[in-house]
Write a structure and sequence with these properties.
2 domains, elongated, Tet_transcr_reg_TetR-rel_C_sf, 9 helices, MT1864/Rv1816-like_C, Tetracycline Repressor, domain 2, 199 residues, Arc Repressor Mutant, subunit A, mainly alpha, DNA-binding
Length: 199
């Protein structure tokens, strides 16, 4: 039994090492530089061994996407826990979302397909951030007894503005920190204020 456990641990360790190597390659060579051969070279394994764990590069990207959403959910949950009232929670959560995007830019790119061609199939882990955000949006709007549709619409209003600004900064030369912070504060504050106004 002990040897079976050891084999399982070794397999998990190898899988983890493959993903770590993929992340390191992407940080130095970009997403276009990622290949199964480069991963194998980095961890000093043969390419066929990599294929035992992941059928192709897209499978690695999908696993990384899952990891990214788990990490993003943690960032957002911690931000939510750091504030008392729902409006402050919402602001903290979107700021955490912004910070996550630039703390691990490459991960954000693969999660949302920013300059990355990959499978981009929706992973179940992508639901957790959405549920966190919509629950707090619903709380801010509780005086209006909002429908699911209106809560989702407000979520996508936030997402469109913040993801758009992140994408501008990742794809282009970006804006200055001052301008970014002002746009973020104006956008988040404006949308939060709109949540408390009955339609």
């Amino acid at each position: 039994m002990a040897s079976k456990d050891r084999i399982l641990r070794q397999k998990e360790e190898t899988k983890k090492n493959i993903l770590i190597a993929a992340c390191q390659i992407v940080k130095t060579d970009g997403w276009q530089g990622l290949s199964m051969r480069k991963i194998a070279d980095k961890i000093e394994y043969t390419a066929p061994i990599i294929y035992e764990y992941f059928s192709n590069k897209e499978a690695i990207l999908q696993e990384m996407t899952k990891m990214g959403f788990v990490s993003l959910t943690k960032y957002i949950q911690e931000a939510k826990n750091s504030a008392e009232n729902s409006a402050d929670q919402l602001e903290a959560m979107w700021m955490a979302y912004w910070n996550f995007a630039f703390a691990d830019k490459e991960m954000y790119q693969v999660m949302f397909g920013v300059e990355v061609s990959c499978c981009m199939e929706r992973v179940p882990e992508a639901e957790a951030p959405l549920l966190l955000f919509t629950s707090v949006i619903r709380e801010v709007m509780k005086g209006q007894n909002p429908s699911d549709e209106s809560v989702k619409q407000k979520y996508f209003t936030f997402f469109a503005v913040i993801h758009g600004l992140i994408s501008i900064n990742i794809v282009g030369n970006g804006l200055s920190d001052n301008i970014n912070n002002q746009i973020l504060k104006d956008a988040i504050g404006g949308i939060i204020r709109s949540l408390t106004v009955a339609n």
